[in-house]
User: Fold these one by one.
Assistant:
Number 1:
Amino acid sequence: MSDNVQKNILKKLLLRTQNRSRLWAALMALCIGTTLLLLSVMIWWNFRELLFGKNQNDTLGSTYLIIGKKVTEQNMGVANATVFTHQDIDDLKHAPQVEDLGIISSNHFPVYAMMGGKLAFATDLALESVPDKFIDKMPADWKWEPGSKNLPIIISSQFLDIYNYVFAPSQGLPQLSEGSVKSIVLNFKAGSGDQSEMFLAHVVGFSDRIGSVLAPQSFIDYGNKKWSKPGIPEAPSQIILKTKDPSDTKFAGYLQKHDYNTNPENLRWSRIRAIVEVVTSATGILALFLMGIGTLVFILFIELTIARAQNSLTLLLQIGYSPHYLSRFMINRFLPMVLATVIISMVITVIGQAVASAAVVSQGLILPAIPGWPVWAALIISTAILVTLVSKSVSGAIKKQ
Amino acid sequence: MQLSLQGIVPVPLREKISTYQSGIWKSPVVLNKGEYISIQAPSGTGKTTLIHILYGLRKDYEGEVIWGTHTLNATDNEALARLRTKNISVIFQDMRLFPELTAWENIEIKLKLTNTVTAHQATEWLERLGLKDKKNAMGNTLSYGEQQRIAIIRALLQPFEWLLMDEPFSHLDLANIEKAIALIGEVVKTHNAGMILADLDENNYFPYTQKILL
């Protein structure tokens, strides 16, 4: 109670000259600066999550690249000339920007696909497999065990596009949706002669990343062991790479030096991504600058308030109030305002993250519903800096009296 | 707490003081707790300057002012604040009240800082000095005499070993001077404190006062 009386009198003496509209303006400036800073860190981190995050596929660009050795006039027809040796694979693991690497295995045995009915066809088929972690849209039923007659396959989404927009119109055939393709059952004959086996193949998914027909690794391994033709090299001719930034000139130079081939479209995407990163970073710097301005405005407001209360402060010091006590009183008045501002900024950022998280779902992307740790770190660091600056500015201004 | 003055000379008065040797300026002086000191001198001879130097408001002087173990010029602001709430109190010549506070708030702001006198006691002192009806009057509406009486009460609201007074009764009539002297005398005695009163030549308010010339 007695403390409240004292505080009310001190408030009357020291904060009476405080201009309310200026206070709101200073708080707004601080809030806008802090919010922009947190939002820019959030955007930066979200881009990183989208581009490099563990949960992401490569719909945004070329994090994943499939490479092969260039077929030239010199190596054309030369056995094993375009396969990757153990040495090549070890080298690739340590190549610039390469985060992970997967071997693309192909079938070394004959596969014959057939279907009856209106869409009747029969064709030889090449299958490939990649480690599961490199599949962009992993179907739930993606597994095969020896003895099973049902074989899940994933086809390139480009195949469906070619069928729907090129082949079907030219042949007068009906176009097919993804759902209808998944309901079709294909008869696969694997192997030859007496050793061959029949399978019922189901399309369980479509890949934007791999441009062929994928079968589970266990099936390819089983088939290669059982029906492989002698003399066919076992070494892979294609490798799938997970890269941090394929637009990096060192990485591009590495590919060129080793005569590796990849889709240049992917590299162009990565350049666009690099531009996005630069823009995000520039936004961050601008936000940092704006927060600096906001902080400066608020600090100047505090100093102005103290300067206006100079007479009262001087007299309070003369009748025995200590600078430390008066500083603490003023800091306790301003810090809750700073903390309220920071909390409002954080709430806006959390809402922004939730909105962003919901918005990217329709694009097939995943973002966490709450801001990532860098946003919280930025919040803690910016709050600590603000609290320190406010405390120092108040103490400094009172010491000057 | 002993007060030791070691050859103090205020810088603005240096040339004037160099022409003569006096009681306090330039001389070593030691004042012991419980002593009543009256510094009598005409206007313009540095009485207020001396009180401000002793209270630590001015640092533009040569020599040293030592309160107990504290050399004033080497004492930081926190320690100075402790001295001003526990050891030394002052009645300023120009009162120095907060004009934007009421008479009672001017009392309360000190009362809550030191917590040595009760609100009841402070109210009683207000009554004794004839200010009962002025409790809620704003500082800037009080007459000089009323302000001076509030300033006297404010100075007595803390523990002290020395009370510094700079022409403390200059705006009071004789009746109020007597009341104020009685109150100051009682409180000083309670604290077993010493007093330094700076005033004009002709005034002699407290008996048993040792006179020192500037």
Number 2:
Amino acid sequence: CSRLHNRPTISPTLLMQNMYQNPALNAPPGPDGLPIPVDPRKSQEHFEDFYEDIFEELAKHGELENLNICDNLADHMVGSVYAKFRDEDAAARSMAALQGRFYAGRPIMIEFSPVTDFREATCR
Amino acid sequence: PPARPRRQRKSGFDQPPPGGVLGVPATGFSDAPAGFSADPVAAAVLPPAPP
């Protein structure tokens, strides 16, 4: 996104950018040079495993109200994970617990997000 | 619908990169020569060497 988003110092919502790696993005190239198509069932299973991992980890720190994972292939918000807790303290605890850790071999980049209502979440 | 049966698998959390984590010695020991700190933050605040 080319917009300048504000980064609140505290919020009930956490954003972990580029965390979900859609298997289609990492598919090896076939003989024609194009990525080999991923079995939709495997792709769904991969997503559900990821969702389960994230939910279980975040739910240790408080009550989750919303968990959105962007599994699109386009550049915009690709792999972003938005987690909205019931209160800001739970989000802060969760952030402290995740900072400096790794997921699937990649560092977790976590910050507070101003988004509180996902139905109206658009880049302004 | 019935709940999806839980799969027995390892969580993706805390899986380090295949080559290890840069800047973190595996043993906790540093091979840095005496007088130098292996900690980049501590090294950054060391006073400059006298001329």
